[in-house]
Design goal:
This protein is an alpha+beta fold and 604 residues long. It has helices spanning 6-15, 42-50, 58-66, 78-92, 139-152, 164-168, 176-179, 193-208, 211-227, 231-251, 301-315, 344-371, 373-387, 440-457, 472-485, 519-553, 560-570, 573-577, 581-585, 590-603; strands at 22-27, 33-39, 69-74, 99-101, 108-111, 119-122, 131-133, 261-268, 272-281, 284-294, 322-325, 337-339, 396-405, 408-418, 421-422, 428-431, 465-469, 492-497, 502-505, 508-512.
Amino acid sequence: MPTPTKQDFLKEVISSLPTSAGVYQYFDANDKLIYVGKAKNLKKRVSSYFNRDKHESGKTALLVRSIVRIQHIVVNNEYEALLLENSMIKEHQPKYNIQLRDDKTYPWICIKNERFPRVFPTRNVIKDGSEYYGPYASVKKMKAILEIIGKTHKIRNCNFNLSAKNIEDGKFKICLEHHIGNCLGPCEGRQKEEDYNQSIVQIRHLVKGNVDSIIGDYKAEMTLAASDLKFEEAALLKQKIDLLENYQSKSVVVNPSINNVDVVSIIADDAFAYLNYMRVIKGAIIQSHSVEFKKKLNEQSEDLILSFIAEMRDVFKSDSREVLTSIEIGASWDHVSFHCPQRGDKKALIDFSLRNVRFYMLDRQRAQEKIDPERHSNRVMQTIQKDLHMVDLPRHIECFDNSNFHGSFPVAACVVFRNAKPSKKDYRHFNIKTVEGPDDFASMEEVIYRRYKRLIDENQSLPQLVIVDGGKGQLSSAMKSMDKLGIRGQITVIGIAKKLEEIFFPEDPIPLYIDKRSESLKVIQRLRNEAHRFGITHHRNKRSKAAFNSELLEIAGIGELTAKKLLRAFASVGKIQELSLEELSTTISKSQAQQILKHFSDKK
């Protein structure tokens, strides 16, 4: 009887898996946990890893080859599976699970678990029963809330143990904070614990974003104080109301009727995903947090959003029943609905969240580029490869542009990018030799042929991508030279038309339109503009040189060497015309100077 193989064993395990929701765990030959996943249907999800002959992602194929043991845990629903998956990933940090990249320790507002609780900022969350609100991605936002708390409530900032016995024994004395009106002196029993705790209740409402309830309490107190003729007390309450209303007006960004909503947006590429979470209470964004995920197994955006929102709801203690997302979500959770708004105030919240995540992504990329420049270049090249459906990574790109003036002084330019950056030492100018008149197509054919004939003859490497500035006509001309050289198919060749930024491929009548914000299009545009600048500069220099030389060479007795000598000394023919005999004689002979003066005098 043959010995059962690893595949036979795994198939047997999979066949016995339940069809309910749960979490599955993959272990390697060293019995180390290498992957944790969630599933609405455990049997169907785990089977999908082993039913394919070839996986789209190489990492997934590597994971499957490493699996020798499978475990599973059954839960009641998909949401519970997601929560369990998150907790297991945090605890075990499996090799193939996505990694949350967040190198900051964000601040929190702490309401200390003690008699007469203190309220203060902290970056250390201690599980001692204290309440923590946050985290705050913006320290400025947190300080603004603490400032409002300080102006509207008299909270102690000392760290004394204000037990009833210590206060009775008179262990503490009031300090300067009491004398300047920042504290009501609970250390000497001058403030009752009930009054102090009422302030703490209102502070909880404030940090949670429930500003309306505090304003309502103050208005009721103000009305009562005014009716009792306590006008000074009523005036102080009015000041607090004004402070809170001013704070609230700065926070409201959409319709205040949008209450207790979570907002999540995502921007993802092949390697990384960037997500933003916002907590919205009565139209005010009270918390916002952005993160970067490093993909491991080509995870889908929906799965990333679900994992992220589960973690954020736990961190921010959210109980909202509605989650707004930037993409459609097919999942369903008990008591939670997912919506992808297309218009209105809720769409405005999604747009605001996307703007935040885009800024966060750019900040992360800029910071990473300083630390690891190669990562930025590789990401750009991978984006170009994907957008242009290329086989090879475009490490070497060349772009061509023609210039002429009514057919005169025809020139062309070739600019070279290596690893998505200009390689100026490889730039080349071409003077058109075989084309008469303004024939842009024939000029492009000549330049492409000359360029790659030389590279082939010198055994130099060919570029992976060639860009032709122009539409179908210029591209067809370039391909004629590629055919003559026998290198069609070895190089990806595209044309870019200026008007609509259309990308043309050989023998494809339908152009490709790349997203205007794409890094691919920006690099292609930069190449095109650089080729145009480089070519125009050469063309102008050639025209100017020809104009200067032809004018001076018309003069009897003035040869090419003398003309160059004059231009080096005086820069232009126009300036030479204005010189006197004595000034010209400092550079050339007197007889030559007289000939020049006579020539320009006869022309007047």
